[in-house]
């Protein structure tokens, strides 16, 4: 007898070699032996492929035995029911097919925000850092990590730190138990499209022919996709729950051109100066320290490159829908050379400018801690802030709870999708043109430094050779001409030097700006992927509603959460265009001004040479 199985839940294939299943569908199995949680079989439509073993129940032939008529008065249709009742459902699908979900906490449960695990609803639930893998800071040879930077203490060990039942109030104080001023518990679990089942359980079968089937929005099988790792999927499916402080709210407002981030009420800038070489461990370890002076505090702090690297890691982990600018690249050798230090400082200035210009990044706690805490004089305060940032719970799916969108504002998803697609095409074109311009500018700068300088000096040398030949004439009236020609040769030598020095003034700043924006352009595919993933879930929920498999209220909840992600994505796109116009306007003005100054210097040299012939 051929092996058969019955589908317990809907499954939609997403990769080649997989087949889709419909609930209650009967399949033919090629083998009962699963391969790493997958079975191979043929569905009712004749498609052959793989599907999750935990999504089906193998149909086994009843054991031979006496007729089970059930005795007098028992209907014959129940004769095949085993004495013990129906066979129980198989275990829940493996973790590869469903994310770790946090169970809904009971009204009386307490969930301290500083601990790694909390108990609520009868199950241990992992912290957001365990649910969603964060960015790991690079640890290259540029700035090694040492015991001073990475000790074994945690923020929970420090006085006044988060955890242990204490919550910081907005004024910086902490209170235990009910004194959580300015903190609100937000949850998306009330309208879960998964129904009221446990967090890690698969969809329940409805027994009884009159019960209405309840479909679920499928999860991505690729658990390493940005949509999953960022927490976007868990948020859209209604699995986010956490405390949000007033100060953590990120507001999106409607501006004249659409959604945009609410402006920073206290804008500031930050200078980066005085890169100096420092040593530690009695000269065994050397590093470069930069002096940062924020305009809103006027208090200088000193930071190493590894501090910038750590900050970038925290920001990239926390803000999945914000383009955190990339830092200047590391360099294994020559990092104490003057040219490299100067170039890195210029890159850090651009980076800091973009950080301080962003309405969200500029105000976040970890960035302010980076700018204001004097690590050299108050090491304990620095480490406390560092550990607090690393224990931040508003990451992953919980980050999206901090987004506050315009009230009573609805987005046309078709219009949003069109805008996102248009921006995706724009970034691709901009990236290609930026690469082309960077290549052209780099090649032109190389020619100026080597080729042009060499050619102009060859011309100058030729003029001086002519002057030396004329000096053999020994005529008094030819002395002035000989000197003028020699001066012309010197002028061309000077012009060659001007060409060699000019790229530092005009082309290098352009290439620095292009490098920064290439980092932004590399960020946006992941940001767009999060929004596209949310939109896919909305379309799937609408299809279930049309088929009568999902309640409208649950589908509306998914769409509302998709709108939240869409608002944030559109706001970030708007900010990108704003700073792009500002930066390229300023840089092109600087480039042309430097070109004018350069050619004025060249003209001045030529005019000086010309005037030498007036007295001949």
From TrEMBL:
Keyword terms, alphabetized: Cell cycle, Cell division, Cytoplasmic vesicle, Endocytosis, Membrane, Mitosis, Protein transport, SH3 domain, Transport
Major site of localization recorded for this protein: membrane
Bias kind Acidic residues: ranges: 141-151
SMART domains: PX, SH3
Compartment annotation: Cytoplasmic vesicle membrane
UniProt KW Cell division keyword: yes
CDD domains according to UniProt: BAR_SNX18, PX_SNX18, SH3_SNX18
One annotated GO molecular function: phosphatidylinositol-4,5-bisphosphate binding
Protein residues bound to a 1,2-diacyl-sn-glycero-3-phospho-(1D-myo-inositol-4,5-bisphosphate): 304, 306, 344
Short name of any one Pfam family annotated for the protein: BAR_3_WASP_bdg
Protein topology in the membrane: Peripheral membrane protein
PROSITE patterns for the chain: PX, SH3
Domain SH3, chain residue ranges per copy: 1-61
Biased segments, Polar residues type: 106-118, 126-140, 202-216
Family from the record: Belongs to the sorting nexin family.
Name used for this protein in its record: Sorting nexin
Protein's organism: Cricetulus griseus
Lineage summary: Eukaryota, Metazoa, Chordata, Craniata, Vertebrata
């Amino acid at each position: 007898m051929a092996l058969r199985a019955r589908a317990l839940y809907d499954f939609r294939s997403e990769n080649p070699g997989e087949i889709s299943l419909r609930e209650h569908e009967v399949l033919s199995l090629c083998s009962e032996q699963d391969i790493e949680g997958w079975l191979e079989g043929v569905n009712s439509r004749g498609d052959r492929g793989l599907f999750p073993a935990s999504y089906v129940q193998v149909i086994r032939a009843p054991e031979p035995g006496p007729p089970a008529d059930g005795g007098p008065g028992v209907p014959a249709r129940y004769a095949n029911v085993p004495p013990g009742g129906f066979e129980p459902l198989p275990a829940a699908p493996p973790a590869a097919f469903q994310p770790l979900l946090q169970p809904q906490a009971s009204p009386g449960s307490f969930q301290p925000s500083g601990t790694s695990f909390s108990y609520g609803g009868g199950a241990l639930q992992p912290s957001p850092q365990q649910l969603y893998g964060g960015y790991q800071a690079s640890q290259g040879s540029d700035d090694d990590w040492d015991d001073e930077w990475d000790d074994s203490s945690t923020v929970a060990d420090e006085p006044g730190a988060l955890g242990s039942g204490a919550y910081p109030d907005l004024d910086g104080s902490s209170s235990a138990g009910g004194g959580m001023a300015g903190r609100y518990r937000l949850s998306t679990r009330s309208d879960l499209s998964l129904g009221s089942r446990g967090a890690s359980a698969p969809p329940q079968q409805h027994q009884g022919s009159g019960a209405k089937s309840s479909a679920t929005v499928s999860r991505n099988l690729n658990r390493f996709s940005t949509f999953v790792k960022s927490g976007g999927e868990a948020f859209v499916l209604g699995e986010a729950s956490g405390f949000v402080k007033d100060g953590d709210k990120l507001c999106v407002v409607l501006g004249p051109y659409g959604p945009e981030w609410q402006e920073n009420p206290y804008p500031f800038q930050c200078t980066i100066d005085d890169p100096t070489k420092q040593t530690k461990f009695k000269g065994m370890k050397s590093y470069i320290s930069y002096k940062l002076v924020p305009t809103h505090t006027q208090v200088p702090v000193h930071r190493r490159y590894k501090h910038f690297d750590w900050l970038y890691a925290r920001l990239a982990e926390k803000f999945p829908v914000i383009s955190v600018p990339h830092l200047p690249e590391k360099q294994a050798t020559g990092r104490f050379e003057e040219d490299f230090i100067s170039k890195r400082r210029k890159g850090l200035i651009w980076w800091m400018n973009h950080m301080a210009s962003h309405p969200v990044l500029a105000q976040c706690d970890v960035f302010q801690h980076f700018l204001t805490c004097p690590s050299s004089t108050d090491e304990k305060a620095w480490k406390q802030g560092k550990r607090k940032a690393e224990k931040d719970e508003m990451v992953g799916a919980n980050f999206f709870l901090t987004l506050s969108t315009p009230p009573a504002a609805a987005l046309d998803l078709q219009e949003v999708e069109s805008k996102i697609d248009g921006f995706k095409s724009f970034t691709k074109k901009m990236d290609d043109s930026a690469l082309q311009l960077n290549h052209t500018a780099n090649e032109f700068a190389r020619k100026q430094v080597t080729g042009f300088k060499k050619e102009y000096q060859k011309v100058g040398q030729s003029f001086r050779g002519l002057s030396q030949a004329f000096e053999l004439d020994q005529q008094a009236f030819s002395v002035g001409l000989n000197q003028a020609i020699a001066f012309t040769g010197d002028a061309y030598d000077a012009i060659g030097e001007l060409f060699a020095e000019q790229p530092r003034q005009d082309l290098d700043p352009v290439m620095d700006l292009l490098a920064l924006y290439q980092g932004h352009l590399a960020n946006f595919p992941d940001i767009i992927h999060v929004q596209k993933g949310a939109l896919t879930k909305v379309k799937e929920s609408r299809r279930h509603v049309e088929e009568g498999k999902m309640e409208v209220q649950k589908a509306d909840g998914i769409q509302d959460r998709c709108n939240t992600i869409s608002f944030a994505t559109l706001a970030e796109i708007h900010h990108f265009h704003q700073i792009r116009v500002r930066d390229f306007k300023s840089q092109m003005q600087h480039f042309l001004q430097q070109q004018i100054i350069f050619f004025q210097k060249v003209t001045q040299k030529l005019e000086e040479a010309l005037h030498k012939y007036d007295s001949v």
